[in-house]
UniProtKB/TrEMBL annotation, chain A:
Family designation: Belongs to the DIM1 family.
Function noted in UniProt: Plays role in pre-mRNA splicing.
Protein name: Thioredoxin-like protein
Keyword field: Cell cycle, mRNA processing, mRNA splicing, Nucleus
Organism classification: Eukaryota, Metazoa, Chordata, Craniata, Vertebrata
Subunit and partners: Homodimer. Interacts with the U5-102 kDa protein subunit of the spliceosome.
Cellular location(s): Nucleus
UniProtKB/TrEMBL annotation, chain B:
InterPro entries: CCDC84-like
Gene Ontology annotations for the cellular component aspect, listed alphabetically: centrosome
Biased composition, class Polar residues, residue ranges: 189-203
Domain of life: Eukaryota
Transmembrane segments: none
Any single biological process term in GO: negative regulation of centrosome duplication
Pfam families xref list: CCDC84
Gene name as annotated: CENATAC
Ranges for region Disordered: 159-210
Protein name as annotated: Centrosomal AT-AC splicing factor isoform X5
Length: 149, 333
């Protein structure tokens, strides 16, 4: 599944992707290709990527190859998905403590599609943070550790 | 003219005296009223021979209007849990008061003589009815007993099968062999599914909700790849420079190249499309080729905030000012 989606393997490539994706939501999946939850997420991403091609571009990033980004986004659990629009990082309130990224996999393809649509519409209206349309029951739970708190 | 009299059958007042009764209209009304009453009486007469006993139902409280006596009569006779169908009506029809009232009714309204017999029930008939009633009561009781015994047998059976299953599961568990242990859950599942299908629903309903929760709770726990905190370098939460904003040496050399004109043409086409997009969307005026200093920070971190964006920006500016001051001091000293 991960071979169907384009991959970015260095910081420069990620920079390039962020700066050059125009007028579409940029989805960066940070994780490892072999991890089971990442595989689930990649499956959903690849199946929806063609339907969402006009609204979003999806890339996979390996956390081991881009330590700068792993550190910047404070990625402690994989997979984590980060959203951008026109070079601007989009925050989403999922009901979880961290609004900067989506941790874990989506339960259904429709959840992901709804989320992308909400982000796209919010970005078109000039909003930097949007409310997630996904049912809080379907958001994976995890413990957020920030500097050993 | 005769004094005004009210005819209860026609439900009207007449001034004809005794003549009214012989009129066509009156006879017609009388016939209709008797036709209304007749089916009830016929049903009761049928029940004479074979009395039916049934379990009490609120429907058995219904009453029937006896035209001759001019009163409401309970149709079915009920006592406690049981009802005898048409018992009440039969009792009334057999009573001497009803006979008297029927006779008077016929004399006053000049009904047909043959019809009168149909609305009466002789005492002998009533006695017969009583006998059959007793018999049917007994048989009903027997039936009830049978049903209760059947239910008891069923319950005993189910209980027995449950005991068996519990016993069969306990026995393999006494052998502390790991292989046996793995096969026991398998047999448990097999017997469990059997019992679940035959016995009650509650135990079966518990199974589907549990797997649902599993998916979200742990199912497959997320891989933890370590705390990403090195104290010196900031991250998104602390509002550090995003890595794609950091100017690298490689980027600047790339900008100096002159791109091919075909690509520029394509870009112009894209820009035409852009004009259709809403002008106040995020990053509409983002110059993709611009070089930015570290001072431009689109996001001010602050995940844990619940105020407005300008508040976090304001906070960040004050902190940045304080930081700059500190740096200046350090440089001086």
């Amino acid at each position: 599944m991960s071979f169907l989606l384009p991959k970015l393997s260095s910081k420069k490539e990620v920079d390039q992707a962020i700066k050059s994706t125009a007028e579409k939501v940029l989805v960066l999946r940070f994780g490892r290709d072999e991890d089971p939850v990442c595989l689930q997420l990649d499956d959903i991403l690849s199946k929806t990527s063609s339907d969402l091609s006009k609204m979003a571009t999806i890339y996979l990033v390996d956390v081991d190859q881009t330590p700068v980004y792993t550190h910047y986004f404070d990625i402690s659990y994989i997979p984590s998905t980060v959203f951008f629009f026109n070079g601007q990082h989009m925050k989403v309130d999922y009901g979880s403590p961290d609004h900067t990224k989506f941790v874990g996999s989506f339960k259904t393809k429709q959840d992901f599609i709804d989320l992308i649509e909400v982000i796209y519409r919010g970005a078109m209206r000039g909003k930097l943070i949007v409310q997630s349309p996904i049912d809080p029951k379907n958001i994976p739970k995890y413990d957020l550790l920030y500097q050993d708190i | 003219m005769a004094p005004p009299e009210r005819c209860s059958v026609c439900r009207q007042t007449f001034f004809c005296g005794r003549g009214h009764v012989y009129s066509r209209k009156h006879q017609r009304q009388l016939k209709v009223a008797l036709e209304r009453l007749l089916p009830q009486v016929e049903a009761a007469r049928k029940a004479l021979r074979a009395a039916q006993v049934e379990r009490y139902v609120p429907d058995h409280e219904r009453c029937c209007w006896c035209l001759c006596c001019g009163c409401e009569v309970r149709k079915h006779l009920s006592h406690g849990n049981l009802t005898v169908l048409h018992g009440g009506l039969l009792e009334h029809l057999a009573s001497p008061e009803h006979k008297k009232a029927t006779n008077r009714f016929w004399w006053e309204n000049k009904g047909e003589f043959q019809m009168k017999e149909k609305f009466l029930i002789s005492p002998q008939d009533y006695a017969r009815f009583k006998k059959s009633m007793v018999k049917s009561l007994d048989s009903y009781e027997e039936k009830e007993d049978e049903v209760i015994k059947e239910m008891a047998a069923q319950i005993r059976e189910v209980e027995h099968s449950r005991q068996e299953m519990v016993r069969s599961v306990l026995e393999p568990q006494t052998v502390p062999d790991p292989e046996e242990g793995s096969s026991a859950p398998g047999s448990w599942k097999g017997t469990n599914s059997q019992v679940a299908s035959t016995s009650q629903q509650p135990s079966y309903v518990d199974l589907p909700p549990a797997p649902e929760l599993d998916w979200m709770e742990t199912g497959q726990p997320l891989t933890f790849i370590g705390h990403q905190d090195t104290p010196g370098i900031g991250n998104i939460h602390s509002g550090a420079t995003p890595p794609w904003m950091v100017q690298d040496e490689d980027c600047s050399s790339g900008n100096q190249q002159i791109g091919p004109s075909y690509e520029e043409f394509l870009k112009e086409k894209e820009k035409q499309k852009l004009k259709k997009l809403p002008p106040d969307r995020v990053g509409a005026n983002f110059d993709h080729n611009s070089s930015t200093s570290a001072g431009w920070l689109p996001s001010f971190g602050r995940v844990w905030n619940n105020g407005r964006r300008w508040q976090s920006r304001h906070q960040f500016k004050t902190e940045a000012a304080a930081r700059n001051k500190q740096q200046l001091h350090k440089k001086k000293s």
